[in-house]
Amino acid sequence: MNFIKERNQDFQKGLSKNITFIVTKDCQLACRYCYLVGKNTQERMPWTIAKAAIDYILEQEEFTEPSVIWDFIGGEPFLEIDLIDRICDYLKTEMFRRNHHWFDSYRFSFSTNGINYHEEKVQKFIKKNINHLSIGITIDGTPTKHNLNRIYKGSERGSYDDVVRNIPLWLNQFPNGGTKVTISSPDIPYIYESVLHLYSLGIHEVNINCVFENVWQPGDDKRFEAQLIQLADEIIDKGYYSDYTCSFFTEQLGRPLDCHLQNQNWCGAGKMLAVDAEGNFYPCTRFAQYSLRSKKARIIGNVRDGINHNKLRPFLTLDRCTQSTQECIDCEVAEGCAWCQGENYDAADTPTIYQRATAICLMHKARVRANNYYWNKLYHKLRSEESAE
């Protein structure tokens, strides 16, 4: 038991390798803000490719992280539940057979649209792997907000009803499950009511972020800030902060950064690994062709020839300063300002990974102002309650 406890702690320390299988590029939905611009029904991972990827990865001595997250994405990953079940069974038996250091120090991770979560094959898979599973169902908030963007492909029909019916089952299996909410320009007016709606469904952890693409309109930052302040008032006045979280309000946010001391890259592109249906390796799924609007895929190897470390090396040298403008480096509220390495590449003037996209600059600054309001109000409330005791 001590061995298992120590291994589980490694996940909390962020010492795990993230390996992603792009099992399909198909999805039931055509979400308006989806960055997967090349979804299709043809590119589905064959078992032979999945097996070759697993054999290659488990044979490599360079993957020294004490834990691993085997991640499955699409499109919608549960469309390929038979393949996923076979992959996971093979992973478990091979890690055991090889006495691999990842055996019993792994997670199978999924982000799903939740539409076919209740189906028998999916539920059978969950019950079989429940002790090593992380599953997040994406639900965007109120029916209005959710159905504004998360529509079925080939129609304007929203998916809210088909997702929300599976939330009780999901929360029963994963009581601490968190959902991921995406914000784009048209749905800013629904942020406040959507977070509260998700709380009312029993979801205690709401991870919420703005899209990195350049979709923002003049005045969006002001509207965004107003929604967040309204939300802050409700969370604090009604005491939601005791049992619920919203990632828009974070203590470590909005301070200047010293590039000499805090010069790490924002994401793990290059330290992660993704494999697609053709057996190509990528530093992150955002560098696969179906994720890119205007650039060519950045392939760093394949299951037959292995990883080309010369193609991987540029990703391992990425840091904050090498890709940021001087304005970003000197920004007084730089801490917590995120970026996506794949969007940096896709939006860059040239095929470089060293040009940081800054489309969310004003949105980040609005979030910082609202975040400061939130913590200032909460501080004064808690001090008043303390004084009254």
Structural class: alpha/beta
The rounded distance between the terminal residues' Cα atoms is 43 Å
The count of β-strands is 11
Beta fraction: 5-15%
From the alpha carbons, calculate the radius of gyration and give it in angstroms. 21 Å
Looking at the structure, what is the overall shape?
globular
Which spans have pLDDT < 50 for at least 5 consecutive residues? 1-12
* Percentage of residues in helical conformation: 25-40%
**What characterizes the major β-sheet?**
8 strands, mixed
**What is the succession of H and E elements?**
HEHEHEHEHHHEHEHEEEEEHHHHH
Mean pLDDT figure: 94
Number of helices: 14
Give the strand line-up of the largest sheet: 4-3-2-1-8-9-10-11
